Structure formats: structure tokens, C-alpha cells
């Protein structure tokens, strides 16, 4: 219970911090709407205008992924700039438990993106919000966000070792949502992208949410695979984070590592 309390309070704290950032607020407000608009016009111009709701949901998942990616990439760097990294590492808890609420907070703030894209599509473009399985949708969206938060811990721990994490963020954003099938169906992509997408939690998260909206398949198996892969990423991220912490302590370069 103490671990859950730590994660819950840490997530709430970092959500409040993100809500005080003008850059984060502006990005969270407008980027999902732009992505939703582009997705709607893309599907309208194609031969499948009946999939506009799926386009709006896909745009929401894209915005959640962007929030997790850039939030995870800057998780350690932001603490370093604020002068709180050393205090985090001195806390009597594993470093992964202290960084995970940061990555989870970025995913939680991404929930606005999903809500905003659906409302934007319904109010502006008159997309009928007919969800095939509302219960599965209400469960799959928070579960997918939790899974992406766990995936974010692995990204954050890996980016600590990379001096140009921001540049890598820009490189990873669009390829990941493409191979994950968030907006473009995986079936239209080259065959070699299939194995890459199959090992990404983002693929199964997007599939679970899409299946709950369209009723095109069973939601729970996809959601289970998403959470399983995310848990593997969580464990791997915790191991990498512990290794980085030990190396930084041994070299006395915590603020620079």
C-alpha cells in the first residue's frame, strides 16, 4: 500500500507541476485538435469516410504517445534543471519508484487529448460518437494510459544515457505511431514493420482502444498483451535506472550523468 500511495501522490504532484507550465498547457490544448483535424480530413478525402470516429480515437492515441515520449525524455533532465535530482536519488526508495510517477503523470495529462479529439470531432465535424462497447472503452483507455506510463519509465531510464534525448524524441514520435497502427492500419505497412510493432505496448494499446470503439475484435486479449509488455518495460526500466544510479554515485557525477 505504501508503494501505491507513493505512486499516486507522486503522480498527482507531477500532474500539478505540468499544469503550471505554459508550454505544456499550450501543447496539450492545441496539438490534439490539430492532429484530430488532419486525421478527419485525411479519412474524408480517402475512400473510408465512415471511419471518422476511428480517426478521432487514433489522433487521441497519437497525442497520448507524444505526451509520454517527450515527458519521459525530459523526466530526468527536468529534475536536473530544477535542482531536485539529487534529492530524488537520496530518498530511501528505489529510483524507479520515484521516476515512474513522472512518466505516469505525462500519460495522465494525455487523457485530455483523447477527450478533446472526440469532442472536437463530435462538435465541429459532426462525427457520431457511437462507441461499440462503452464499458470496454472506459476500461481500455485508462489501462492503455497506465501501460504507456510504464513504457515511459523504460524510455526515461534509457534517455539518461543519451546526451541528445530531445533529438531522439523527435525521431521516435512519428515512426512509433505509424508502426503501432494508431492512425494508419498496420496491414498497409511493409511486412518488416510487423515484428517491430508486435513488441511495442503502443501497438496493443491502440488496438485495444480501437476494438472497443469499432467492435472489430475482442478487446481484453489486446489489453492483456499491452499490460504484459508494459510490465516487462517497467521491470527493464527499473533495472536500467538502478544501474545508472549506481554508476553515477560511483563516479560522483549524478548531476551530469
The level of helicity is over 70%
- Shape summary: globular
Q: In angstroms, what is the radius of gyration? A: 18 Å
Number of helices: 12
| Uncertain parts | none
> What portion of the residues fall into strands of 2 or more residues?
under 5%
How would you spell out the order of helices and strands? Answer: HHHHHHHHHHHH
Number of strands: 0
Specify the biggest β-sheet: none
Q: What number of structural domains do the residues give?
A: 1
Q: Residue-averaged pLDDT, rounded?
A: 80
* Straight-line distance between termini: 32 Å
Short account of what is shown:
This protein has 257 residues and is mainly α. The chain contains 12 helices and no strands.
